């Protein structure tokens, strides 16, 4: 074999362009930059491998336009990306599920529902499969350098990675679907208005993006594994695997989104933009700001007493009760206690009980 010749025999009538093969590196740079901006610094190992493929051999380059000796670098970058992907993604999903167990399965009640057991099962699968896949990737050839060095592959022992790649993609897709569905029953059983439950459900339902990425990644894995022109079919597989990891980082941050929207005021702006604000909300805000609502009274409570703040709530001045049956008694002691509760539906900060 001529090391300076094409890595694959071109189709009839096609002349290899080995020195400057046509490519679509502009697409690769755009996708990699967009994903890196979402979760920069978290998976630079995988990004390093994908960036390396820009220079050797380039994205969407036919294999017959690549020198055979350049396939060493290509296979090395593919090997690196596979290892980093198989480490980063399981760790992301374990992080997601542990956080959700802390939120939705408090201690002492974790074994009462399917949610905690479902999370535990997915965590077990992710940890065991992640370790197994990483070990298999590193033992696919003996000696180890034969994984990417094509000059010694003829004398080495290697096994086909196709089944392992399909199994990995299938495990990740099933896990993504499980992570999408697991919190939904818990969310819809929360004691809050249906609008709030729907909002929380939609936020956690954004894991659908990860399911889409995993599904397409599985499809591209099958296509890539069966293709003769593997260099040409590699970019879609790399892009969707990168998108799947990016979605994982996004899902990790989901619990922080409602707090960010509330503190920045973006949530109210989004509601008004979508037309969700109503006259009732406006009147409620006016009621709380004009000095008559519980929020207003609560804010004034530090500088006043309960009696002068809630002077209207004095049942002893407006009616007689059984306590006056003993009005003339000379007994010493507590003859009556009165407990007045003032509540309105809302947050825990808006509930006051005055004895």
Number of strands: 4
Instruction: Name the average pLDDT.
Output: 79
Q: How many separate helices?
A: 14
Strand percentage lies at under 5%
> Strands across the major sheet, in which order?
1-2
Indicate the low-confidence ranges by residue numbers. Answer: 293-329, 347-355
What's the story with the biggest beta sheet?
2 strands, antiparallel
Subunit arrangement of the protein: single chain
Order of SSEs? HHHHEEHHHHHHHHHHEE
Supply the helix-strand structural class. mainly alpha
Membrane topology: Multi-pass membrane protein
GO cellular component, one term: membrane
Domain Rhodopsin: 38-262
Transmembrane segments: 27-55, 76-94, 114-137, 198-218, 238-261
Overview of the structural elements:
With 355 residues, this protein is mainly α. It has two domains: 25-264; 278-326 and 333-354, no CATH class. Helix content is 59%, strand content 3%. The chain contains 14 helices and four strands. The protein has helices at 25-38, 44-55, 71-104, 114-138, 162-188, 194-204, 208-226, 230-252, 257-264, 266-274, 279-289, 294-300, 306-309, 315-318; strands at 141-142, 157-158, 340-342, 352-354. The strands form two sheets. A two-stranded antiparallel sheet has the order 1-2. Helix 7 runs antiparallel to helix 8 (230-252). The N and C termini lie far apart (93 Å). 24% of the residues are buried. The model is unreliable at 293-329 and 347-355 (pLDDT under 50).
């Amino acid at each position: 074999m001529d090391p300076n010749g094409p890595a694959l025999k071109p189709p009839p009538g096609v002349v290899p362009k080995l020195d400057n093969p046509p490519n679509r590196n502009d697409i690769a740079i755009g996708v990699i930059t967009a994903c890196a901006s979402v979760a920069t610094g978290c998976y630079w190992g995988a990004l390093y491998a994908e960036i390396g493929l820009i220079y050797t051999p380039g994205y969407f380059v036919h294999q017959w336009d690549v020198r055979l000796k350049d396939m060493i670098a290509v296979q090395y970058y593919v090997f690196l990306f596979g290892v980093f992907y198989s480490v980063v993604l399981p760790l992301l999903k374990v992080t997601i599920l542990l956080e959700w167990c802390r939120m939705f399965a408090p201690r002492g009640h974790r074994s009462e529902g399917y949610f905690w057991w479902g999370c535990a099962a997915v965590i077990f699968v992710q940890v065991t499969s992640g370790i197994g896949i990483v070990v298999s990737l590193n033992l696919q050839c003996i000696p180890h350098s034969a994984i990417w060095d094509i000059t010694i592959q003829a004398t080495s022992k290697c096994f086909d990675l196709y089944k392992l790649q399909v199994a990995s993609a299938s495990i990740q897709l099933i896990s993504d679907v499980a992570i999408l569905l697991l919190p939904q029953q818990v969310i819809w059983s929360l004691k809050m208005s249906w609008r709030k439950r729907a909002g929380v459900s939609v936020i956690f339902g954004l894991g659908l993006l990860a399911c889409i990425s995993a599904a397409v990644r599985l499809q591209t894995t099958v296509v890539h594994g069966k293709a003769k022109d593997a260099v040409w079919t590699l970019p879609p597989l790399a892009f969707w695997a990168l998108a799947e990891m990016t979605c994982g980082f996004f899902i990790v941050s989901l619990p922080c989104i409602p707090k960010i929207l509330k503190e920045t005021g973006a949530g109210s702006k989004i509601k008004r933009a979508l037309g969700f604000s109503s006259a009732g909300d406006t009147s409620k805000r006016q009621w709380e700001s004009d000095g008559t609502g519980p929020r207003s009274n609560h804010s004034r409570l530090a500088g006043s007493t309960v009696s002068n703040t809630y002077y209207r709530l004095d049942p002893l001045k407006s009616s007689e009760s059984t306590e006056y049956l003993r009005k003339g008694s000379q007994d010493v002691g507590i003859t009556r206690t009165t407990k007045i509760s003032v509540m309105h539906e809302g947050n825990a900060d808006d509930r006051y009980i005055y004895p």
